[in-house]
Amino acid sequence: MELNVFEKGAPRQNLAISAYQQLKHDIIRGLYAPEQKLLMSRLKEQYGASTGPLREALSQLVADRLVVAISQRGYRVAPISLAELNDIYDARAQLEGLILRLAIERGDDDWEAMVLATAHRLAKVTDVSTPDELLDIWDQRHKAFHTAIASGCNSPHLLQMRDTLFNQVERYRHLWLQETVMSPQALELKRQEHAALVEVILARDTAQADSLMRDHLMTPVPIITRVLEARGIR
Question: What pTM did the predictor assign?
Fold first, then answer.
């Protein structure tokens, strides 16, 4: 994703990008609670950056809808709700369906090879030392797999819209990842889902691929709903 706010010189740009990436990661992982105030003094200490780069990072996070700017009062982590959860996941599934249909129509042999390669790498995530490492590696390869599928649509604007929705859904999605035990059985179930998806994509079966993709993307919603309700979030 292009960070338009970071165009004011390499050293400052690097600090701003680093602060953005770290703060975004920590918000998604729940280190900051929804609606928690982000105090500049604490952010400086936490991320080793000065006010300028941090403001640029926070501006980008506002654009990502992970942070809310409060007039004359600084910044807060964006709130979360069941209504937003359902809207974002539905919007993402609808857009992903469109992108998938175009990818099946437009994707070439190189695209098919990339889909197969990323699916293979994802299926190989089994022997990892710690649960956190397993979660991180599986999540990275899972994202790469779906990005490879989407790339076949050959539409930079649609892919940019997809990235925006993914940024917004990621905080909710991580609640699902935390709740889902990445056991050998769970990994095998996901491997089977991905294998079925690859099979219908390579067969250019648009209707079946669209149906499987939507079911796959919407799987986390009931689990996340239970987590939010248990926390008193409506």
Answer: 0.84
